Amino acid sequence: MGHHRVKVFVRLRPSCRPSTAIHVDHAANTIRIDVQKQHGGGPPRPYNDQMVFPFDNVIQSSCQETVFDQCAKSVVEDILGGYNGTILTYGQTGSGKTYTMTGDTKAYAHRGIIPRAVERIFAEKVAKPEAGITVHVSYLEVYNEGIYDLLPQRRLASAVSLTAMEDNGLIEIKGLNKMHCSTEAEALKYFFEGERHRSVAPHTLNQMSSRSHCVFTLFVERHSGLRTLEEVTSCKLNLVDLAGLERLKRTEVGGQTKKEAMLINKSLSFLEQVVSHTLRFAALVMQKQRLSLEAYYLKSALHWADRAAVYALRQGTGHVPFRQSRLTTLLKDALGGNCKTVLIACAWAEDFFLDETISTLRFAQRVKYLKTSAIINKKPDDANIERKYVREISDLKQELALRDALTGRPSISYDDLTEETRSELRERIQAFLAEEAGIDSIPIENFKQVKELLCLFKEAQVSLRRELEKLLRDYGGGPDTFLNHPATDIEMNPGSTEGDDEEYVGELDTEGFHVGPVAPDDARPDLPPSPHAMVRALRSPELRYGDDTLLDYNKSPPIKAAPPDLWDLDLEERNEAFLEYKHNTEEGQIQEQELKTKTAELRMRKRSARELYTTVNNSKHEIADVKLLDSASKAGARVEFGNQAFDEQKYHLMQRFRVARSAYQRAFQELKEVKTNLELLQQEVRDCKQKLLESFYRWFETMSMYRGDMSKMEAFSSGSPAAVVSGPKQSVYKGDIDVGKVEAPLPASAGVVTGSKLGMTKSPGLNHEIVKGSVMVPQQQNKTRSKGGK
Ligand SMILES: Nc1ncnc2c1ncn2[C@@H]1O[C@H](COP(=O)(O)OP(=O)(O)OP(=O)(O)O)[C@@H](O)[C@H]1O
């Protein structure tokens, strides 16, 4: 990083009656002012009667071209070399600042620094096309302490002020338009467009007085032109035309123009303060470094300018208040940052304005002591880097092609997969997943293709899952129904825990009496249906969620080994017969009671199994979560414990894992035992059901047999089978009949009905009415078969 002093030039406005107090020494580049020739008042008196101001150059009666060559050209050349630059014009109102910066638009020869700088940059762009110079321009003004964009649209009264921000050590204006310019004419077009939008107003000293500080910026990017270099220089040239200092009594303005003048003076005085503070800070640093000679010079410069600054220097404070106005914020880089700066101080040469001229020269002299730290601004050349990678990729592809040719695989392509290839792969994957094609149908050629295949597999899985969820929703289930289906976790599921089938045993339903899941052992399918099979099944219209065919495949068909006579009855009659047996026979009551007890116990066991099952699954999920978190926390914060590095997060995860694992093991063990008991109990329940049905069938057969013998029928139906022992179907009871409980049959005429009517009044096979209390009334003998008969 190089330190560069700010270069200061003074341009005296041509005058027909120049002051005799002003003496320009062109050889020494100084201006001497003989203050004793001043008549009263005036600036603070120096210790002597002469003031000498040294500058880099004093320009008097020079043309615009000379001004550009002497003051601005070096900064513009530095821009092409990658340095940021700023050229400022400063001075009293009407002293020629705008003339110097913009020039006289009426004559080409009188064009100012801005058009000439634009011309020089585009000349370089044309001369060196290999450098790939790109130019953008922006134009803003600081008006009444607001920053306004002058491009591309006219600044409106309602326009919002922009914000100046510091980015990477440089001041940037947020939201400022930067217009790309391919040619000089284009850049000038934007410049003159901005000129038209500037705030100007007339007063006695200038008919076109600027009421704002204007900054025209050229952003220049330049490539090295060498294919090997991966850097590009990127810098900007600020061309600043400051508004002029105004003595209000001289300009005789009022209203809005007066207000503007006061704000202009205020912002310029902030600029002076910033310069003074910067010098004071520099002097402080030099003093500390014992650079007493330079400090002396600085202090002498400050002496004239700001005694308060010298006092503050003694106090040792070093803060420079750049942020106290928009102008000083904008000029921060120019006054001490990464920039090469030139100040052109414009002044009147007449006696009448000697006070203002001396003020201007003092300010300019102080600025001359400022130093900046300009560097060449480089940034990665994205285009060059891209070119390099494209070249490398092409080389690598050739290398691969060579290797494939040598290993006998010449047809492999390493280019990106086309949409056509991708859809072909998608179809193959669909066929493979639908088990219509084998694994060999999917080609595996290179890494890029494998990655694409994985993506397509994921895509297929996601779409399948979505379709399945939708179908399940349509059929009244939900995604959880499938996910929590026993088949998906067959190890952990204690069996069907929903809707205990045992509850239906002995109950009436639409298909006749329900006998529950007395299923053969091989009723359960070996494997759960695959998602594809489920989707296929769900797509078919005749299947519905809850059918035995799909999700309830655990259910088994009921036993149908009933006596043929029973199936001759219709549904209602069968149900009535079954109820009659269960409620009105001793044996039926005992068996039903036994079945109910067992069923209740089974239900209780299932409930506890269900709870254990939930615990096991929750523990499994917790373990899975912990594993997931563990893998995600590989880059977790590490905490130092003494000398030992300790992963705090991992510790907590380990704790969670241990708790979940022990809960899982405990519940799993208990679940295994419960499942064993459950299976035994289920078997017992099945036996009970079997027994109940068999004895019902026997009872029904006997009743059918005694159809004509009322007394036997009554005796039998009342639970006293001894009365019928001698009957022709004695063998039905297989020896478990209590012969001591025979009751005398009631007279056939007895028509008294006590208790509820439960009998088989519609039974064509039993031509009587059975009433609780053993009253029988013979009815019709021949009744036609019901619709349910077989
Ligand atoms: N060196 C010069 N040679 C010829 N004409 C000049 C010169 N300097 C200034 N002028 C003329 O003086 C008038 C005022 O100049 P200019 O507008 O540049 O002043 P200014 O410093 O920008 O004023 P303000 O601060 O009010 O905007 C213009 O008409 C301009 O042409």
UniProtKB/TrEMBL annotation:
The keyword Phosphoprotein applies. The keyword Phosphoprotein applies. SUPFAM superfamilies: P-loop containing nucleoside triphosphate hydrolases. Residues 5-370 form the Kinesin motor domain. One of its GO terms (cellular component) is microtubule. Keywords: ATP-binding, Coiled coil, Microtubule, Motor protein, Nucleotide-binding, Phosphoprotein. PANTHER family: CENTROMERE PROTEIN E (PTHR47968), KINESIN FAMILY MEMBER 5A (PTHR47968:SF62). This is Kinesin motor domain-containing protein. The lineage of its organism: Eukaryota, Viridiplantae, Streptophyta, Embryophyta, Marchantiophyta.
